Protein 1
Amino acid sequence: MTDFKTEKITDPENVSNHSDIESSGSTELPQAVSKNKDKKPERELTKSELFLREYMARALGLRPPPKQILSTVNLEGVAKLISEGKVKKVITMAGAGISTSAGIPDFRSKGTGVYYNLDQFNLPDPQALFSISYFKENPVPYYTVRKELLLGNYKPTPCHYFIRMLAEKGVLLRHFTQNIDGLERVAGIDPDLLMEAHGSNQVGHCIECSKEYTNLWIRDCLKRDEIPKCTIECCTGTIRPDTVFFGEPLPKRFSELVDQDFEQCDLLIVLGTSLKVQPFASLIIKVPEETPRLYINLEKNASEAKHPLTILVFGGGFKFDDEDNYRDVFLESACDDGCTRLAELIGWKDELTNLVASEHARLDKEFLEEAQKEATELPTQMSHQLSIKADTKVPANQIPMKTNPRESPKQKPCHTEKKAEISKATITSVSASGSSNQKPGNDKKKQQTKLSTKHMKTKK
Ligand code: CNA
């Protein structure tokens, strides 16, 4: 979990003007002036401690209620804020639900979610599929499930283009996404405005030596139904995409941007996420107390904290149904419909519709050209796969994976020169999404990875 406790903030007991802090409702404090430096050394509180203190004070009625920004606590109220130019630092937070209409399944939707379709793999639990320790033991389930996503040509949804419009209108401070499908980039959202909290599939690295591989190279292996394996001699590593697996830290930029952005956010829009994955889920409490929060999702319950400890630690999440709710709006809707409705209320609907139509037409053309190019370049034995139309999805779990049949070790002896290449790759290619977790020479792993073990043995 991201360490938010490292940033120190001055103890509010030593702050010269308490009333300013109370009326602002912000966690940002002016510099402290110690009245009695010789006797009592200045003490520092972490942001988390300060938050808890303010939360408790408010819960006990020791702080005035925050100012209500919305004219009406509903979608119309949110739209009015945007159309009247009253918000300039909008943060959008997204999850798998913004991409389901593009054809990419989420994790937790009943029936269609990835977690409901894993019987064939006999996993210890559904999350094991995306845990780095399990991937190191057995990458086959991961690649079987991810194959479709990695090979597919998906088009961003109206929701993605609505976020792009916020950026183009100059009101988007940042888009934080948990998605690894890269559709925000495809939609044309400026990468500086993007925080892909769980990484992306753009590149991959060997889990043993960290050599970098492109997305295209990984795709080529998958097209041949092969588990991508390191090409460096003497290395037995599997290639992993640079996405954050369970059990790995989030990119450093994530915590930096959280600290920098959330305290200035003047409107938070949360889209298509069950808010079950930390630390992302708890970001909703990091905006100032006045800041309106709009949540568009197919279901509401997922976002409401019920356990007293969660309420104490994370502030209880949204307060849609509380009598004194002054800022939380829930729209039970598909993200595309919700964003289109919001665009309509703001007066952007035609622009959004035209943008989606023109971008989809451009992408259809690009996908078709790519497919035609590949069909002429790739060997005949693969041509049956390439005749698939650009927008046709082949269920990945119908195609069994096999390991990459590389040259035999006799043809590729281990040279000292090559070992030097491995250490160079290790130094230069440490990925932000946690390839530093690699543990070369894990004997237990070699015993347990049945498909890979066979391959490893033939290499030695
Ligand atoms: P999740 O836990 O599966 O929740 C998705 C939420 O979206 C659920 O509450 C659904 O009800 C809701 N939902 C589904 N479709 C729609 C829709 N069309 N409109 C509105 N709401 C909808 O997924 P989260 O994103 O909350 O969990 C975070 C995980 C999922 C991250 O680690 C991601 O990497 C991971 N993931 C990403 C993708 C992707 O990149 N497209 C796909 C699957 C999983």
Protein 2
Amino acid sequence: MNEFELIRKYFERPAKGALVGVGDDCALVRPNAGLELAMTTDTLVEGRHFAAGAEARSLGHKALAVNLSDLAAMGAAPRWALLSLALPSADEAWLAAFSGGFFALAERHGIELVGGDTVRSPLLTIGITAIGEVPAGVTMYRGSARPGDDVWVSGELGGAALALKHPEVAEAAERLHRPEPRVELGERLRGIARAAIDVSDGFAADLGHILQRSGVCAVVYYEQLPRAAALARFEASVQQACVLGGGDDYELCFTADPERRKEVEALSRELGLRLSLVGSIQKGEPRLHLYGEGGRAIEVPAGFDHFR
Ligand code: ADP
Ligand code: MG
């Protein structure tokens, strides 16, 4: 199978939302009038983001999921994706499983693959660029949190990090390998949330980005942070490390005016998704003040950094 047969067989699909999809030098798309384009790219590298021999279907899912999560954090509706694949070989079973995982998630969220690049390389590397649309004026920025805002977190934290330490815990492994991007939540938070970020590097570090960009501090109560059920049978120090410092959960952390509490709670019920109020934004140097039981201060862990 040559490069072009590979692309045609595994990655060329009709793209109704594009003027030109896979097959020409560029994809050609026309954004809807009045909408702004949100663009993001994320790369997964073998040995760094996943182990050699990782299951191909899950990789196809996750590589797209992490990009959809970025779109969700800015309230954008997914539209188009580009896929850059560096493969050690043209393994058809791998390609079928990978593209199966990719397209299953893509179809659920209405994002279409419109182009990419395919090369041979000893190290499996998957780069995806995702483009979405959002109406002007309702995007959530990292920099738009204000003193007095509530701090909210979706779903549960720490499951993915637990799977790195304890791969035998099935529900944690599911969180790590097949994260569910909070696309619908992101879109529904337009006009309700002020600032938002997706939790990819750890709750403390990611909320820290909001604080830095917004020039505010936050007070968060550890006991109010939603934690993955699978963590319950592990000791408190493991729980704390996973909940505060664990990456890869792809939940949304957002801030909103306390006047919007009823709307956030209604949204939680409607989506069947837990949304937890965990603290508040305050005036002050960009720092996270974290308190545990009895008001004792907890040291804030650093997030993941590729170059540290
Ligand atoms: P060019 O040489 O002009 O960059 P390529 O030969 O690399 O084009 O790719 C041919 C077509 O296939 C292009 O439309 C490109 O976007 C698409 N393509 C290549 N690899 C992928 C992939 N992994 N997934 C989706 N589309 C791809
Ligand atoms: Mg060309």
